[in-house]
């Protein structure tokens, strides 16, 4: 079963950041990921505070659905 482990390649040497479990000897395929790949920005909670709002009648039944109401 394929197993993925992060590592760092520098000056011809691959350093694994963690030890693969239950593998003593195996063929490997190394895929290089460019360092310039964009980092995922973490969202800041409350970033839209004051920019999004709800109307006062938000929880009221819609006119289009009145015929289905009890």
From TrEMBL:
Species the sequence originates in: Runella aurantiaca
One Pfam assignment: DUF2281
Protein name in UniProt: DUF2281 domain-containing protein
InterPro entries named among the record's database cross-references: DUF2281 (IPR018739)
Domain DUF2281: 35-68
